[in-house]
Amino acid sequence: MKVDAKVIADYVKERNDVLFSFDEVRIKAFMKKHLIPVPEDPNAFWGCVYKSIANLNDVPKPVMKRAEEGLAKLGMDKSYSVPKVKIVKTGAPIRQKAESL
Q1: Which residues lie across from 88 on neighbouring strands?
Q2: Alpha carbon 73 to chain centroid distance?
Q3: Distance between CA atoms of residues 45 and 76, nearest Å
Q4: 95 with 70: CB under 8 angstroms?
Q5: Can you tell me the distance from the alpha carbon of 62 to that of 65, in angstroms, rounded to the nearest whole number?
Q6: Most buried by CB count within 10 Å: which residue of 14, 19, 42, 93?
Q7: Distance (Å, rounded) from C-alpha 25 to C-alpha 31?
Q8: Residue 57 has what DSSP assignment?
Q9: Model pLDDT for residues 10-32, shown as the tens digit of each residue
Q10: E-strand spans in the chain?
């Protein structure tokens, strides 16, 4: 299935315009329009918004600052990563054991 570059560009523009507005009503309408689940908890909702912005490229500095400040206020960071693990060799040539840090 070929995806039209204009469709992607239009989506990205709409997404950025909506996210960068920090307008809760507009953001929720966009999410519903694109079938993105809307968290019921306000902290989870704003955490998703701030993380989404913080992980985009070419974000205006004032918008990024507001997103980073929002994440800090919620006690979150911008990563979407899973907990870090340390790989420890067990002596077996193929097997390795993951140990939580």
Answers
A1: 97
A2: 16
A3: 12
A4: no
A5: 5
A6: 19
A7: 10
A8: S
A9: 999 999 999 999 999 999 999 99
A10: 85-89, 96-100
The position carrying tokens 């993380």 is 51
Distance CA 22, CA 66 (A): 9
Higher pLDDT, 7 or 90: 7
C-alpha torsion 52→53→58→59, nearest 10? 170
H helix or E strand, kind and range, residue 11: helix 5-21
Are 27 and 67 spatial neighbours (Cβ–Cβ below 8 Å)?
A: no
Write the single-letter amino acid at 67. Answer: A
Tokens linked to 80? 């979407």
Q: pTM of the predicted model, to two decimals?
A: 0.74
